[in-house]
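Possible regression after last week's pipeline update?

I re-ran a chain I had predicted before the update to compare outputs. Posting the input and the new output here so someone can diff against the archived version. Not blocking, just want to make sure nothing changed silently.
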Amino acid sequence: MKTNTIFVGLFMCIFASMNLQNSMAQQLFTLEQLNYGGKEYRKFTPERQFHTWWGDRLIRLDAESCYLIDSKTTKEMPLIQLDELNKWCHLDEGERIRSLYSIQFPDPEEPLVLVKSKSQRLLVNFKQQCLLWKQTAQQQTAADFCFKSKATAYVQDHQLFVIDENDSIHQLTTDGSREIVYGQSVHRNEFGIDKGTFWSPDGLQLAFYRMDQSMVADYPQVDVSQRIAAYMPDKYPMAGETSHEVTVGVYNLKTGKTIYLDAGNPKDRYFTNIQWSPDGKNIYMFELNRDQNDCRLAVYDAQTGKKEGEIYRETDEKYVEPMHPIVFLPWDSGKFVMQSQKDGYNHLYLFAVEGKQLKQITSGKWVVMDMLGFNRRTKSIIIRSNEQSPIQANLYSVDIKTGKRILLDDGEGWHYGSLSASGQYILDNYSAPTVPRKTDLLLTAKKQSTNLLTAKDPWEGFALPEYSCGTLKAADQTTDLFYRMVKPHDFDPNKKYPTVIYVYGGPHAHNVDASWHYGSRSWETYMAQKGYVLFILDNRGSEHRGRDFEQATFRQLGQTEMADQMMGVEFLKSLPYVDQDRIGVHGWSFGGFMTMTMMLNHPEVFKVGVAGGPVIDWKYYEVMYGERYMDTPQANPDGYERTSLLNKAKDLQGHLQIITGYNDNTVVPQHCLEFLARCIEAGTQPDFFVYPGEPHNMRGHQSVHLHERITNYFETYLK
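New output (post-update):
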């Protein structure tokens, strides 16, 4: 009797334990956990570390401490404490440095750290534990500090200033305004532009952008947060309309004088990828015509602004995209490396300063995705490429003389690298489909790695969907396209599932790669656990597949992409578990445009769609991006007419929800509003939702609200 009681009790404990484990395994996510902006989001992202380089020494950063990492043993030694740093700087409570995450080690040899308090820029010797220098850093927009001269360029009240090593302020401009913009990004951040000031190697000269947009039409944005809504105009050059005009100035810190590069009439031209020569005597700049099919590399005298010549020219019947400045060899100032996809794929070329191409350094049917820098000792370039697979990103060392490449990482996954000062080491952060995150320290002279971090799976114990990846043929029946599929955690192949296609499809972006869960967005997991199958396909026109793959959409945006996406639909229809009567589609920005393009052209296929921030008609989009891929409305009227969704408002049959930020300055609200007007005329009934005060993407916790709304729409009409 006693034995039976013990046995029963033991059985019940085991049963309870199994139930508990099963219950834990079946935990489901909330959007607060999955969505960026959610209250618990950070708990459910893979652990990461923050690092920076001090020359060739790796430093791990934390909020209140930073640590020197031994490159052989990975042992950490405390280097600087936040409280100590504040004491060394003699800062009161209001000026205290709040975190060490953003500190810099500007000298590869000396024990110096550059930090910023509330209103000061500070240089500290952490071995001597003393403050060496400080500079005013208050109310500075687009601040650009140069360690060589300890000068900072910045914008304040629309004017460009330089504050020098002695804390003296030099005002470079007086006519700055909303219409005359100095020292900031121009050409709407296209062509690789992300800043507007460029220091010479010695820090004594500053090249800067001047953008005259007085001739550009205002888009009438409105601030509705005030008691009486206020007019908040935004300069927005639409395709085919008048664009802004850019010039490049050069300020000499020693003479206090400014000259402008004699580049000729700036009308309908783009100036980008500014680079100084190593001796600071010349400025190199790519110049592109408005048609974006004729690109030239010009050289200017930095002292006089005189044009010394054009040393390279590249043309294309469709378009040329100069995205990177030239980079001079650290050991030979007479040679530079240039990136181009003139052979069909983005590769590296070696040139002499006179403009003669000396050799093509890399080649093959794959792309150089990033050039990280040089290993000076081995005279090699460290790159990131997809040579291993179109959906991978791996790190290589490339011998400039022989072109021989050494794979530095494990040959799998999706890698990012940060190079040490000499190029001897590289910090490798990466993930793979089943690897949330790893951080390794690599040698660049040979394949050797040391692991610094292997993150645990933050989703352990939750009911995880099935993530898979595969290929199918594009509409040309030749090109391989990669897709991702996400299935419910309790997937039953004998059931029929509602299926949502998530789409982007536009240039300079992709959705499917070999990172964790094949790059799956967290919302896909949320939908899968609600019983949906998710399907994501990278069509022709997306990035990292070469020039012809990207240019297949030229002058007809949405058409080739749609044809490829419909091949994905045919694939889905061949699967017995996909309910052909319950197929939906969702995307944002270009993906919003694709969502509506697919719904309106194939109303018989898509029952439900949610389009966020959608382009409706490319004539309402900006000059630089729009004209690159579509030409002007004047030059390509048939293409604009064919791709416009305005005339297709009458074809809406399924349930369509359109969502936009009320103050979207990327895809302006006119797109949505004009489409709604056409729907009213046609008698069709889309749903429409606006986020007041929000730009192109919803920020913070509003993103949780947004994704709950998207989810609810599919739950209401597709499930």
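Follow-up from reviewer: compared with the archived run. Residues 1-24 have pLDDT under 50 and may be disordered. Marking as no regression found.
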